[in-house]
Amino acid sequence: MVPLGPDSVVDLPGRWNNRVRLEGALDFVTSTVRNELPLALYQGGYVERELRERSADQMRAKNTAGFVLGARLTWTGRDCFLGQRHWRPIVSVAQQEVMGLRFTDDLFRLTFFGNAAYEDRTANVAPSAFTRIGYRSVGVGFMDQRTGSYLLLGLVQGGSFTEVDIRSASLYTAPDGRLLSLSINGEFHANDTAGNGYDRFNGLGAALSGRWAFRFGQDKYTVAAGVTDLGIVRWNGNSVHLAKDSLIDYRGIDITDLLDLDDVLIGEERLRDTFGLHYTTSAHNMLLPFRATLEFRMQLDDRTETGITIAQRNLPGHVPEAILHAGRRLGQRTLLGAHVGYGGAGGLRAGISARMRLGQHTWIDLGTAHLPGLLLGGARSMGLQAAITVGF
Amino acid sequence: MFRRSSAKLRPLLLAGVTVAWVGCAKEPARWDIDVLAPLVTSSMTIGDLVPDSLLTADADGAISLLYKSTLFAVDMDTVLTAPDTTFVYGAGLDLGLGTVNLPAGFVFDVQNNLTRFDVDDLQLRTLVLREGTLLVRMTNELTSGILGTFSFPGASFPNGSTELTAFATAGSPAQASTTVVQRDLAGVTFDLRGPNYDDVNTLATNISLVLDPSGDGATVSEGDSVLALLTYSGLVPQYARGYFGNRVIHVGPDTTSLDLFSNIVAGTLDVDQVDLRLKVENGLGVDIQVALDHLSAINTRTGNTVDLSHTIVQGPMNLNRAVDLGNGFLPSLYHAAMDQDNSNVDHFLENMPDKLGYSVELRLNPLGNVSNGHDFLYYDSRLRAELELEVPLRLIASSLTLEKILTPDLPGSANGHALISGKLNVFATNGFPFSADLQLAIVDDQGTVLAQLPVNGSIATGLLGGDGLVHTATDSRLTADLSEAHAHLLYTGGKLRLRAVFNTADQAQHVQIHDHYRLDLQVTAGGQYMVNGNE
Fold this sequence. Notes:
The complex is a heterodimer of chains A (about 400) and B (about 525). Chain A has one domain (about 10-390): monomeric porin ompg (Porin, Beta Barrel). Chain A is mostly beta strands and about 400 residues long. In chain A, strand 15 and strand 16 form a beta hairpin. The model of chain A has no long low-confidence stretch (mean pLDDT about 90). Chain A has a 14-stranded antiparallel β-barrel with strand order 1-3-4-6-7-9-10-15-16-17-18-19-20-21. Helix content of chain A is about 10%, strand content about 55%. Chain A has helices at about 10, 35-45, 50-55, 105-115, 270-275, 370-375, and strands spanning about 20-30, 45, 60-75, 85-105, 120-125, 130-145, 150-175, 180-190, 205-215, 220-235, 240-250, 255, 280, 285, 290-300, 305-315, 320-330, 335-345, 350-360, 360-370, 380-390. Chain B is mainly beta. Chain B has 3 domains: about 30-60 and about 395-530, Jelly Rolls (Sandwich), CATH 2.60.120; about 65-80 and about 245-390, Jelly Rolls; about 80-245, Jelly Rolls, CATH 2.60.120. Chain B is about 5% helix and about 55% strand. Chain B contains 5 helices and 38 strands. In chain B, strands 4, 7, 9, 11, 12, 15 and 26 form a 7-stranded antiparallel beta sheet that branches. In chain B, strands 17, 28, 30, 31, 36 and 37 form a 6-stranded antiparallel beta sheet that branches. In chain B, strands 1-38-29-35-32 form a 5-stranded antiparallel beta sheet. The longest helix of chain B is centred in the N-terminal third of the chain and has 14 residues, at about 5-20. At the A-B interface, helix 2, strand 2, helix 4, strand 12 and helix 6 of A face helix 1, strand 1, strand 28, strand 29 and strand 38 of B.
């Protein structure tokens, strides 16, 4: 979602020495999956077959999905930081949970319906990829209150991650299930299985966030480039790793005494031995799912602005997203905005946002990245963002 | 008026739930999928159905079953048992002597005794002990210490000594002193012919009681006494020689278990040829006459019993004595061979017994003391009867049913079934000359049938050529359905009972099993599985 642009009437930038902002965001994006399915998965319990089939009916050969769930607390101090008149110090702490997914139609159907429907057929489950990471960061930096440019350097505590990259894979199910032939070339990484708590440092890293903005044409036009969480995490030596590049033909576990079937049925350890699915452990370096943006804003009049933003996130299934946005001030306290975007991990999205100043020191931001996702049961993608800012 | 549409409310609810995302406790999501996968493959020859150690094959690959079982065994301790025995020796002042003063070193008493061992009807001349203990307990009422010397002229101890001494300190009639001395008898040889070498079971025992030579003597009154108890205990013979008597030892009636047919629960078996050999090994140095009262094949499942009809149950078997080699023995062997021509051993075997019943009478020395007292036994001497069964696997099987109870390890638990329902497919390529029908049932711990699983199809027999051999294997397919109710029974403690019913290809002629015959099986399953169903 694109944040609303600055407005001196609503924001009252010169009135406060300190500003504390608490914000949270959830953004779920998908090209084909109906929102009801991830909601049902999250709620738990039995997921109805009809619900799964509604999403399955919308699948294409290649599908994408992703989500961002985060919260951030930021303090911005008074100006004259480091002797610079317009610079203000920033300290920010954040918690992020980010996921990106690229998958095939067959992989979706295998996962949610099984392989029985693929009898005497081959299911193509690649190219597919999945990345999920949860991390916490603490950053310090400064911002230029004239342009909104800022720089933040942060320390990252890695909580958990899962990374799957299936470059090529297919599963053939013979008639009557007499043979399963799996061809796979892929890799799997995950964090230390000992735990993901806040007291655990499964990974440690650093990240940089910043935005450089340039105004011209008597401040009518703004061009800005930015990046959020550009950095790396090194996961500890207990991170698990599995790489496979093989063809496995499985005809059942070979036993000598057919009458001794007690331990045959779906013993996980025996299946792992059969398929050679045993992890190794080693440290792992991972780029954070940074987000890079390039934006252009134009002030139409003293109340209205418009612009375009190009964004790209470092996650599987994500392509550059183009967002057209516009905002207008209503009265002295309220900003309204709307945007239409295409790309990212989903398709066309349309959202709205609003900022309202309460009194002289408090601002409330609300918005949704995709309004239909909140209104229509069959929609794909949805998002919510909220923030409260206090200046003093 | 309100109009509510659940469809319109749902997205708002979706948003509301989403906002309440963090901190909500929830159960894992689960969903059912349809899976189709192979379970097991197996390839069996006759060696996989019957342990290889029981099978032999001739040059043509024709298989024979060779099965051995011990019928009964009589160990050495049945023939000779030396009980624990205590001998009491006492010494005191004769009545009428009043009180006398005895000096130090005075010989209070000397006895030359003959110790007779009670060993039933045996007349032992020599006994070498493997284990045993001699305990001497001396009680002294005299006011002087007493030195007791116990010598055994007829004994030979490993250290060469034949004496044992014990010293009891001074005591009194009111408070006698006691001393205990123990001697290990392992390796001791007893000549039980007595001091004149003309007796049996007799050991000379000489006792000397002397007042402490370094003491002050003692004043002894009438009634003051010294008592010595000699206890022989834990005697285990290593070797014994003598005459073991003319006596009868009864063995049984008893049964011995036979596990050859333990998995067969129904059906009939018709074998073409049976050879049953009785081998009796006599490791005792005694002539023995064995009278086999009966030998029965007992099938506790059907309740049928077949008594063996042969000369060995009609008359006694005479066993020669073993040969004493001096430091060991050479057992004598007796063989009796039974087949379908000289007995009913085929019917005996076709009863498929799980127990053999027998009753045996052993007559030792039926002709008396013909060895002139040279019967012998060693510690590991025994009389053992062994049955050896040889059956060429050339047979006719009619509804011969093997049964196995399985406890499958299903994913999930009684509260969370991961497996909901399913269908088993069995693909068979059969090169054996018999067909097989499979029966599946769910039973409880007592074997009571809770449900029958319908099985469609059967495993067809391999095709026999004109030479009676299988030349072409046949392919077959069976299916068995496992419903949701069946799965629930398995999850809640039910076991899977698998029965295989075999019928040979030719019910009129015996078919020979060969070592190269094989049965290839593959089991696949298609079913409904609940992802996270075990959470």
